[in-house]
UniProtKB/TrEMBL annotation, chain A:
Protein name (database record): NADH-quinone oxidoreductase subunit F
Residues annotated as domain NADH-ubiquinone oxidoreductase 51kDa subunit iron-sulphur binding: 335-380
Region (Disordered): 1-23
Keywords: 4Fe-4S, Flavoprotein, FMN, Iron, Iron-sulfur, Metal-binding, NAD, Quinone, Translocase
From TrEMBL, chain B:
Name the record gives this protein: NADH-quinone oxidoreductase
MF (Gene Ontology): 2 iron, 2 sulfur cluster binding; 4 iron, 4 sulfur cluster binding; metal ion binding; NADH dehydrogenase (ubiquinone) activity; NADH dehydrogenase activity; quinone binding
Pfam families linked to this entry: Fer2_4, Fer4_Nqo3, Molybdop_Fe4S4, Molybdopterin, NADH-G_4Fe-4S_3
UniProt remark on cofactor binding: Binds 1 [2Fe-2S] cluster per subunit.
Listed EC numbers: 7.1.1.-
PROSITE patterns for the chain: 2FE2S_FER_2, 4FE4S_HC3, 4FE4S_MOW_BIS_MGD, COMPLEX1_75K_1, COMPLEX1_75K_2, COMPLEX1_75K_3
4Fe-4S His(Cys)3-ligated-type domain: residues covered: 95-134
Cofactor: [2Fe-2S] cluster; [4Fe-4S] cluster
Database matches in PANTHER family: NADH-QUINONE OXIDOREDUCTASE SUBUNIT G, RESPIRATORY NITRATE REDUCTASE
Listed CDD domains: fer2, MopB_CT_NDH-1_NuoG2-N7, MopB_NDH-1_NuoG2-N7
Species of origin: Fontimonas thermophila
From TrEMBL, chain C:
SUPFAM superfamilies in alphabetical order: Thioredoxin-like
InterPro entries associated with the record: NuoE-like, NuoE_dom, NuoE_N, Thioredoxin-like_sf
A GO MF term: 2 iron, 2 sulfur cluster binding
Binding residue positions for [2Fe-2S] cluster: C80, C85, C121, C125
Record field: catalytic activity: a quinone + NADH + 5 H(+)(in) = a quinol + NAD(+) + 4 H(+)(out)
Keyword Metal-binding: yes
Descriptive protein name: NADH-quinone oxidoreductase subunit E
Family: Belongs to the complex I 24 kDa subunit family.
Co-factor binding details: Binds 1 [2Fe-2S] cluster.
Obligatory cofactor(s): [2Fe-2S] cluster
Amino acid sequence: MSARTSPPSKPLTDRIRPNHPPYGLADYERHGGYQGLRAALKMSPQDVTALMKSAGLRGRGGAGFPTGVKWSLVPMGENAPKQKYIIANGDEMEPGTFKDRLLLEGDPLQFIEGITIGGYAIGASIGYVFLRAEYVEAARALRKAIQECYARNRLGRNILGSDFHFDLYLHTSAGRYICGEETALINSLEGKRAIPRAKPPFPATSGLFGKPTVVNNIETLCNVPHIVHYGAEWFRGLSKGKDGGTKIYGASGKLRRPGAWELPMGTTVREILEDHAGGLRAGLKLRGFLPGGASTDFLTAEHLDVPMDFDSIAKAGSRMGTGMMIVLDDQTDVIGMVRNLERFFARESCGWCTPCRDGLPWVEKILASLEAGQGRPEDLTILRQMTRLLGPGRTFCAHAPGAMEPLQSALGHFRLDFERAAARSAAVAGGRP
Amino acid sequence: MSAGDARSATAPLVTIEIDGRRYRVDPRRNLLEVALELGFDLPYFCWHPALGSVGACRQCAVTQFKDENDTQGRVVMACMTPCADKTRIAIAHPDALEMRASVIEMLMTNHPHDCPVCEEGGACHLQDMTVMTGHAYRRYRFHKRTHVNQDLGPFVSHEMNRCIACYRCVRFYREYAGGDDLNVFGAHHYVYFGRASDGVLESPFSGNLVEVCPTGVFTDKTYGESYTRKWDLQQAPSICHHCAVGCNIMPGERYGRLKRIENRYHGALNGYFLCDRGRYGYQHVNAQGRVRHAALRRDRGAARQPVDADTAIATLAGWLAEGRVLGIGSPRASLEANYALRALVGADRFHRGIDAETARLDDLVLETLARGPAQIATIADIEQADAVLVLGEDVLATGARIALAIRQAVRQSAYAMADAAHVPRWQDHSARLLAQEVKSPLFVCTPAATGLDGIATRTYRGAPQDLVRLAQEIVHLLDYTQPRAPGLDGDTIHLAHTIAEALKGAQRPLIVSGTGCGSAALLQVVANLCTALGRSGRKPWLALLPSECNSLGTALLGGPGLDAALARIEVGEIDTLIVLENDLFRRVPAPRLQALLMRLSHLVVIDALATPTAEAADLLLPAGAFAETDGTLVNYEGRAQRYFQVYVPEGDIRESWRWLQQVARARGQDLGDALDALIAGCAGSDPRLARIVDAAPSARFRIHGSRIPRQPHRYSGRTAMHAQRDIHEPRPPQDPDTPLAFSMEGARTGAPPAEIPIFWYPRWNSVQSVHKFQQEIGGPLRGGDPGVRLIEPGPGGHYHDRPGYRAPAELETVWLYELFGSEELSVRGDAIASRVAAPYLVLHPATAARLGLTAGATVQVEAAGQRWQAVLRVSPTFAANVAGVPRGLPGVPTFATGTVLSVREVRP
Amino acid sequence: MLSPDEIAEIDRELAHYEQPAAATIEALKIVQRHRGWVSDEAVAAIAAKLGCSPADVDAVATFYNLIYRRPVGRHVIHVCDSVTCWMLGEPRLTELLKAQLGIDYGQTTADGRFTLLPICCLGTCDRAPAMMIDEDTHRDLESVDAARLSAILERYP
Ligand SMILES: Cc1cc2nc3c(=O)[nH]c(=O)nc-3n(C[C@H](O)[C@H](O)[C@H](O)COP(=O)(O)O)c2cc1C
Ligand code: SF4
Ligand code: FES
């Protein structure tokens, strides 16, 4: 059935052909598709979960939580609730991030196979894909693929002749970045306002409609079939570091060849930026970069040789996040950039908790006034204080702390820019009659 | 009674450390609750003792340390942190202090700082928390976001710019009270709390928004119309007179006008919430139709002329001396007033102010409560019931606060799920999400649709006779020695099974019924149900609602009903009839009553309101309305509760019992000259009433020699308030009846729970201060909740005879009730009046079709020689064959239960 | 109030969820696809269909930025104003658009053809700046000029 002889080194993108429609089921299976699910159906659900653990698969949605551990928190066995759910998080609205779109547009079946295996592993008979509204292309590809899977017994009842049933529904969103936060996503899927929920209880015990639920990122789930098919060892071997597998890295900004590439986990920043993105455009110098989307701390040129994996980036003082870098060059106003980021976060706050709802607009306004040369010296004090007050644990969910990461690191790495802006404003103000 | 406490369960205490000191606390609580209980002033907004924790406002920040060695700590929200053993927190830690002040600063970036013109000013939780956290100087220098306000109807004003987005309003309105027309709109810092469009807030509990909102977004519109600062209100503890539940209220007065009603916390009864009838029903006190002066008609046919009090008293004393007197009491008057009338005219000449049929029902309620084995359910008990059967009573209309409690009761199985999942009950949204739509059993079996149907497991619609049969079948299923009900269809029998199983399977089954159906058989079968449940090993809880605020008090006093009095008038035995606070036209069909009144020589009416009965009086004595008098009421659970005079009214108005005392004195009879004498007399008249003395301390009670002031210490303008009339400072009125003083002077702390005139505490100027008066958050007031139970249920054990079954006649009346409209006093205020429906008649579609009538038609209805027009409502959920008539609604006359109507369409 | 097509589509979505209210967002999107925007009447009709109150539906409708509670033009232009697009010339693109259409953000052209709205990252940052018109994503607009912009807009009559 499978034409493949040797395992791929870029499993996630192997079947993706730029500027071509994605494979249909027949081609997909000719290229190794559904080997993972076939293998999984022969294993016990618990063994599939254990495999994820030993493969060292960590969530690609931003937090890097070990997928096998997440699955193992779901109650299993006789006394577990009958209804459980698995949800694919395809909300992807983190500025700078476009990896899940590529995976869904390019190879929707790989994802469907992945979520089906996930459903099997946790005993869920229903899965949802939560897709952001603007991904029209991806939605088309998914709809088509889902339809084909139903027609060919890859979804629905008694999948591939087993006694496993699995239904998959596509839910397209109506906007709002906060829908990407997994508990807000669950509320949104329930047709409610996308307000995050308190944790604990975690979705694994009380999620969608109060039932045990796993939320996984699209990229995370795309890895699953390959791990089952080729094994944990192989998966770990793909990586240059401790965490298993490859990673879709990306880079945007004033680069020669912005884009996204599947590379071994732990590829260095320098390799990504210089070899793959072609470096900065002529005449520009690197000032810094956000390693994994808008809600990560700035790193600078001194971090170019840090490997892009969860722990190394954390050690360097940031987060790997989505692994999609945004590059700041020396001609771009850093205050303007941070102002742009904070406007985004302020606008996308769900409005539930005070520091986020009322603090972020204030931050945005201060930055805008600094950018416009109307700041005040005490503004920097307030900004610094805000990075503390909107930090982890202070707000209801991770949205505001995420918003503070670029700000707090910018205030550190680019302190002089801010101080100069404040001083310039003071001078302007002082000069007024 | 705080969010979902299971009263049976106890947990071993654990040790936690706050600011370096150790405390033994209940691990099932959260840190915020516990810190407040321990006396710490920890600010909060979104947490509410009855609504639980949701972690939205981030105001209750404290620093938590991992262990003994952790010196750094991290900031957590106290409301979302359980009191696990060895928890170490610091409230005074610099990080937590900074966080708390900063949250206020952030909230204030959009707050309009319009405190001078805000109704909440000076009694505002936001102000208190702002001062408490120390945020004093504004650093925010940008624009504030603004909103447009909505017209939310006659009860609640809306000023959205003051909103701090604590989400309490929607959590109360939607999640706690089940309303669906208020919500939050928009996102990020443009969240808006209101209706989808302008319009009346539909929830019968909308007025609680005023107290639930920690700032001035939702304020009392009736109060705002002639506004006074909280500290300029004279207040006294009082009891709501608008139904038999007896919620504790706090009326406030200024310049001789009653300004507003606030909730007065009672741990076993109303807790934190009132219904809108209770909150807004007070306006009759200020209404135009008040009787303010004594007036006498000297000659038949002449007009009444004002007379001074002495003349009035002498006149009545003279008529009494002539003999042939009869006194009619009232279920809306105090025990003391009823007792005084009885003492004045003699027990054999005293009649209860209700028809014989209602008297029988009230007596049955008393008897059922007293016989046992059911325990009498407080509202706090009702919230804990894990299976509820509502039989015949539209509680949302006749005892609304109980319906709100039933809403909480259906969460019992959700709490069980939360316990199993180790989700603390106070973590409100998590507990709700876990349970989803799961509800404990609730069966609503009534003639017409009710506001509780939406949360009911099953509903059943039938005429009272059908309800009796259903209940009889349940009795049979619980105890096979009891006979089956005749002629039930399969569905109904199946329902009876379902209900019987649910009641049997419950730990704390509750039966709710009352006199609303006007059916003695129903009350008897309710008693049988309790007996059967008792025999099957379950001790049920029972809540039986009589119709008026002192129905049970008058039942305890006893005496024959009105019919007997009318018969004595009819035979010409009576010359002088004294009617106490009672509009007989609400109880006796007008043609008959008018004819009878003609046979009297003297009709004497003592009342606060110019009712039709008062209009007919030859001698009219102005009585104090509830806020102008003291007295005792007995509520549905048999709890005697004392209410106190808030202010001294103008004119000749005085307590009805004082008129009667003074008339007695003029006749040489001694009924005393203050309240305590009547309380003592009343208590001595029947062993069941003996304990009313303990409902509140007597007039002699003092705190270190001082009285309890009705006026706050900041009360302003005392010397100048009346200066436009008289520059001399009037001597404050004396109060011979209670330990309260019409004054600012006196003892501010240490008032016994029944006599707390204001909830205020240093640094806590808003209603949130109530926690300073509680033994524990959501528990009883310090010193115990006010009032005394007069009835202790016996062991029960025997059955009433099986009630006979009679199929209802076609177009036989079935009573329906309106929260706004069925109660006499509340409809006399503008706010409530604007919510009263026009007269209507309800028929089942089949019945309407048989009569050739269509929905919306104007029909003329005739009963007992009276005709009125009504709009026809056709409802498939209404019992077939019978006719639903809204009892007491303005424009609908009175007649006997079970009267057969005639209906015909009126064509324009 | 809802058309038979709308009802059929909503019913299809209802089948996917444990609870009817879960289809609220889908129902709003369905109605919007048919009518361009969601009026008060449509909110009430959806509420009736799903068995909840208009306030319930509106609370959801007003939360999500892609549900329009006011009429929009025949075509909606969403300009990405997030960080990469901003760096690569979104302000310029926006100014060009505003000038050509003669409207500001949040407005609709007088002929009812276009509504202009900002949107956060469209997930196409490697080809920034970008905008969406209806369901089409237009990329690589860094050096867009008035002529090219007109050519794009002309495709949306
Ligand atoms: C504000 C916010 C937005 C998020 N957006 C996304 C998103 O768009 N896609 C995603 O996969 N995860 C997002 N996450 C992370 C999810 O909450 C969750 O951790 C993730 O979907 C889990 O999947 P994983 O374990 O496979 O990474 C977001 C988190 C936060 C706090
Ligand atoms: S959210 Fe908590 S955090 Fe805030 S007060 Fe409300 S109670 Fe506390
Ligand atoms: S920043 Fe615009 S597409 Fe990403």
